[in-house]
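Why should sequence recovery work at all? Because a backbone constrains its sequence more than one might expect. Tight turns favour small or flexible residues, buried strands favour hydrophobic ones, and helices have their own preferences. The token representation captures these environments compactly. In the example below, the structure is given first.
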């Protein structure tokens, strides 16, 4: 059975017009036995579900969908003829449904087609997970809803195609791969729809999700201390944006934070291990032992060797 609920107009569609209500009522009446769904493959992770489903439409019909999750869809087969859709409250006419579409949680989507079969990859993401990545509650305006019916951004297509391939043939660390791709989907969707162009992200600092990812990377002692560029790539930001947002969030610079982490890790290894200086330097990301000694002396006022001797007496 399908995940979508069939509903009367409600859900905060406060902008619903009389036309919306009439067409929704017709769609709900027609779809009672008009289509069925078989889930072919499925993976569920915290805050998201990924599946490939076969839809069967018995005849020309109209449908009304609403989901409590945000939902991406990638059509993996030829779509039924005259597939069109529109969002309630968006002041839009029925628009040809694209190969890629997105439906925000809690927004009613009215759809029409001439009947047939269709295979769709769906990536359904909980509101909590979506909001954690975006960093704020979003107000879906008519412009964004209209664009969502037919998405054309190449990064979104590539991510969905990658998820489809992973679901068909899971590889190493598949669940982590899918989880990471879902976050990238959200970011690329919001960028393609123009969210954040009011510079609210620049003014508001890093999101809780971005801070968590940054902290996790800095806490991972298995890898050298990352550069600002590496962290910017990890979070999908420019170096300038990341540096500005970090200062806004913490009142200090990211480079100072990296130096503090490097110094703290060096002090720990010098105190608790017999690791050679050359190895400590390499594990912290320094190209030479000399550059490590210089940086450590600048931060602590003494050489690594002197610090190690003093800490053990």
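From this structural description, the recovered sequence reads:
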């Amino acid at each position: 059975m399908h995940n979508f609920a069939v509903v009367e107009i409600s859900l905060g569609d406060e902008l619903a017009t009389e036309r919306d209500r009439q067409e929704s009522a017709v769609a709900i009446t027609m779809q009672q036995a008009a289509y069925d769904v078989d889930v072919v493959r499925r993976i569920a992770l915290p805050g998201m579900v990924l599946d490939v489903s076969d839809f069967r439409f018995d005849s020309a019909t109209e449908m009304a969908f609403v989901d409590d999750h945000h939902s991406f869809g990638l059509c993996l087969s030829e779509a039924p003829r005259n597939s069109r859709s529109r969002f309630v409250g968006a002041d839009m006419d029925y628009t040809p449904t694209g190969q890629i579409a997105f439906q925000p949680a809690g927004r009613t989507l009215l759809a029409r087609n001439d009947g047939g079969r269709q295979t769709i990859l769906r990536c359904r993401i909980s509101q909590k997970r979506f909001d954690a990545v975006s960093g704020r509650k979003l107000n879906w305006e008519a412009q964004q809803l209209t664009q969502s019916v037919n998405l054309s951004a190449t990064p979104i297509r590539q991510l969905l195609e990658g998820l489809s391939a992973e679901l068909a043939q899971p590889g190493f660390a598949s669940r982590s791969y899918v989880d990471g791709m879902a976050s990238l989907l959200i970011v690329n969707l919001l960028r393609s729809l123009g969210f954040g162009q009011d510079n609210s992200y620049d003014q508001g600092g890093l999101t809780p999700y971005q801070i968590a990812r940054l902290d996790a990377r800095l806490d991972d002692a298995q890898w050298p201390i990352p550069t600002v560029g590496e962290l910017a790539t990890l979070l999908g930001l420019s170096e300038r944006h990341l540096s500005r947002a970090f200062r806004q969030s913490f009142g200090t610079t990211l480079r100072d934070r990296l130096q503090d982490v490097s110094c703290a890790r060096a002090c720990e290894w010098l105190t608790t291990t017999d690791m050679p200086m050359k190895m400590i330097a390499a594990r912290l990301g320094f190209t030479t032992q000399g550059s490590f000694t210089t940086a450590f002396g600048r931060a602590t006022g003494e050489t690594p060797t002197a610090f190690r001797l003093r800490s053990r007496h």
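A few observations help interpret the result. The CA atoms of residues 120 and 226 lie 39 Å apart.
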